[in-house]
Amino acid sequence: MIDLNRFLAETTASGKIPSVSLATLRAGMRSTKCYFGVRGAHDLAAVDAATVFEAASLTKPLVAYIALQLSEEGLLDLQRPLFDICGEYVPGYSTSRRITVVHVLTHTSGLPNIVRETAPLRTYFNPGERFSYGSSAFAWLQRAMEAVSARPLETLARERIFEPLGMHRSSLEWQERFAVNHARGHEWEGQPVPKRRVQTAQASWSLVTTASDYISFIQHVLARRGLASATHDQWFLPRINTRQGDDAEDLIGHNPPDLNIAWGLGWGLEPFQGCFFHWGNSPGFLAFVLANRATQDAVVWFANSAQGLRLVHAVVPQTVPGEHPAIEWLRIGNL
């Protein structure tokens, strides 16, 4: 067993990862909060509890939670095509008109992860056919959620998550109050990344937050609060097995299913371990969250380095014990 605090202190001091913000739960109770390193090349002050990081795709579970609340309130039908709720999103591809909220949250929409020259916005397979991580579909889901609630996504998140849970250093949009204490991202060789200041919430990636704030959300989830019991169970029901692929995307479908990893409504699942997880990846930032629903142990960390996920091999055994096939599925290397 390594000394986790010492390991993180030495890792950040070495310059491999400028800073790490980490929080844990043990049996559902807050256990550890630790902050190591400096905010970045722009500011050599030490990271502390108030330093905000880019959470990237750790945004998606929050959006899923809000969508499930809207469903319980009769505003959002999870099985209704998004086209029927808020109109066209993928012109010229009629199969896209069958995409539902469930397809988006389970990454079975058939849309690409990131729209790019080699993967333009279109349906690559029939919705529901198989798993392929597809962040681009969340923009359509956001449009539907905003339409049925008559609220911008940032307002929905503030009213339903940030304010009730005391997540005062969290937002889906850049706040000027964060300017005095924020982390700056760094690439593999330590080059700083220009700071993004997102003006409009993005359902798949725009969350800025702290480890302390995000662990509050995880504590809320593990305590089964905010949703009816039946809805909560549906949230974590394994819907589809994942497939291996670059960034979990498998548009062509050449890769076989991974029987050890599934996806629920917004969470990655380790069905045989009873754990849920997600990772976040944006330029110069990486984040990870993993929790065990039975033991109520959990860990979340943010790192302002493209190497940030590589902390997993030292951090997870100390915080959420047991076998975790998600690590192999994500193909996370060592520092």
From TrEMBL:
Residues 5-308 form the Beta-lactamase-related domain. InterPro entries: Beta-lactam-related, Beta-lactam/transpept-like, Diverse_Enzym_Activities. Transmembrane segments: none annotated. It comes from the Bacteria. It holds the Pfam family Beta-lactamase. PANTHER family: BETA-LACTAMASE-RELATED (PTHR43283), PTHR43283:SF18. This is Beta-lactamase. It comes from Caballeronia sordidicola (Burkholderia sordidicola).
